[in-house]
Amino acid sequence: MEELVVKKFYGENELRRMYLEFFESKGHLAMKSFSLVPHNDNSLLLINAGMAPLKPYFTGQEIPPRRRVTTCQKCIRTGDIENVGKTARHLTFFEMLGNFSFGDYFKHEAIHWSWEFLTQVLGLEEDRLYPSIYGEDDEAFEIWNKEVGVPAEKITRFYRDPETGECDNFWEHGAGPCGPCSEIYYDRGEKYGCGKPDCKVGCDCDRFMEVWNNVFTQFEGDGKGGYTELAQKNIDTGMGLERLAVVMQDVDSVFDIDTMKAIRDKVCEMSGKKYQVDALDDVSIRLITDHIRSATFMISDGIMPSNEGRGYVLRRIIRRAARHGRMLGIDGIFMAKLAATVINESKDGYPELEEKKDFIFKVLSQEEEKFGKTIDQGLSILSDMEKQMEADGVKVLSGENAFKLYDTYGFPMDLTQEILEEKGFSVDEEGFKKAMEVQRTTARKARKVTNYMGADETVYESVDPSVTTEFVGYDSLNCKSKITVLTTETEIVEALSDGEVGTVIVEQTPFYATMGGQQGDKGIIRTAAGEFQVEDTIKLLGGKVGHVGKMISGMMKTGDEADLSVDAALRAKICKNHSATHLLQKALREVLGTHVEQAGSYQDGERTRFDFSHFAAMTPEELEKVEKIVNDKIAEAIPVRTDVMTVDEAKKTGAMALFGEKYGETVRVVSMGDFSKEFCGGTHVKNTSEIAAFKIISENGVAAGVRRIEALTGDNVFAYYRNLEKELLEAAKAAKATPATLTEKIEHMQAEIKALTSENESLKSKAAKEALGDVMDQ
């Protein structure tokens, strides 16, 4: 009988450490795993490969910190998410070990070191290792055969498909750098094989498992089959940590390795189920085991559940796991408890998990709780629909019903599909899309989108698209310009007369339009014949700015030259509030943690309102710390600087961008010394000292995981304290005390009230007893 014993059992965390230490000994810089959120790479939603964060080094866009680098990179792939749980192979979260050379060593070292690590460091049996190469890569064959000493018959050549021209052992992605690959397979033995006599490297069964892949980037491809040698050749190595652990621990699948088994066992403990007893239960157990890892790491990297982008990927993963938990019979919210096991198993390699665990638990619990409120009702409705389909002999759920589940019960389309597929049904996707479009069209017709004075949006849609407005209000609050368009509430007109409400559009304006959370300016527009009071300034499509208000005297016509003057006092107040908001966001991140992200904001002349991601009410101590930090920065009199640069340049400076916001080729970056740096198109003070003072007046929750702070600045702070002082004096007068003795007087009055209440209760009790005695005597 075949003996399948590896040299030694190594845990996943130990394997990660051994790999990085080995390549450090070969002159590599061991770099920490990059975030799952791609940096400066719009082509990716999430990091999905070990080399993905290193692309700028391979392309020459950035200079690497060293020409030899090694990493263990966390990755997310959801392309096959529907197969996760159904097989023992598929994962959404995995770790990729990699050693990389940027124009330094090449094939000889890469091949020798891969063999050395597997055979000498890990102790794998040489006779179970099988290299593969690109069919035409004779250089790699010679290294494996002549230098390493692998027999020729154990080296598998993979050639291009004669019809498609594709080859698994030649890496290329359109035009650009490319090259041959050399993989190393481990023979796990006949028990994992398919039983076919021709079973060999490349077979789809689980006997020969790929554990290492060296990519030799040595060509520049033109995308049409032509290749030229690169002057700088690179090495890109990938090895799945989970797969390596399967080999080293001699287990059946990735769900059986030590770290995954710990999570799997916790799922079984929570559900009361046993693994490998019921096939359907196994699907749910594996799915939850994988998905909780993905969710934990995604939240740790600052990804929040939402309805779009990577936030939707996270929401989908959490909700799939939550549903399968219910299918296993787990009562109530469970994912945060399960995440604790993930953190315990992975904190050696990722200590930030332990640091952020409370935040991770809160995000998971709130998202699971939110889903729990809709899933029961949605499942009940879907069950009724299934019964009706069975009665009608129908196998496809109508798009209208699928949309009803989505629109009314918050049931995602993919979840409806998944549930129905489990029972042999499908969904009319085209019908769903049509129902969605009908709803959007109806909503557009029903919705009255109005500006400040009530003008219908269609008025502005009728304006000539070539009309634009240039904003010149960063440096000046006054300018002369020509009037290009005038409208009333319902139509475009040639003139506005005294008393008429309408909108004025000009070629240039110092008026800031409401956007980015900052209220639009107010002020006056004057012509030789009339005066228009601007009550609001709005941003219109096509780069136009609308000045909305009322004619207060005379008249003005299209083509008139106008003097535009912004209300300077109001603008100053808005600037103070806006600049204070930048200081506030940075202070919150310092006090609460870097998970704090802007969720919304609004600044007018009265106050600033800032919504941010956080999952607990702030304590008085936290509020005091934040307030002190902001006031300290105001007192430091920090110059406020604005720079215009490309988005890439801005990100390199470390400037904070609003997540999910779309930016043009250039952006404005507002800096307050080294303390705060943000993308921002708004208006600001020239120096933080202009803000004068900052006071938080409220903090409360506005949505799941979103808190809101309202605060005052400048004269509004002093007015706030004057009002408090007035109320204090009135309260002291009513209590016949002074402000200094008011607290003592209130405490004394409370004690008197308590004593009188107690005495009153005693008298009532005594009277009741006496009355009862009189009744008994009769």
TrEMBL record:
Q: Which reaction does it catalyse?
A: tRNA(Ala) + L-alanine + ATP = L-alanyl-tRNA(Ala) + AMP + diphosphate
Please name the SUPFAM superfamilies in this protein's record: Class II aaRS and biotin synthetases, Putative anticodon-binding domain of alanyl-tRNA synthetase (AlaRS), ThrRS/AlaRS common domain, Translation proteins
Could you give one GO CC term from the UniProt record?
Answer: cytosol
Recite the UniProt keywords alphabetically: Aminoacyl-tRNA synthetase, ATP-binding, Ligase, Metal-binding, Nucleotide-binding, Protein biosynthesis, RNA-binding, tRNA-binding, Zinc
Entry annotated with the keyword Ribonucleoprotein: no
Q: Which cofactor does it need?
A: Zn(2+)
Which GO terms of type biological process are on file?
A: alanyl-tRNA aminoacylation
Hey, which family's this protein in? Belongs to the class-II aminoacyl-tRNA synthetase family.
Q: What is this protein called?
A: Alanine--tRNA ligase
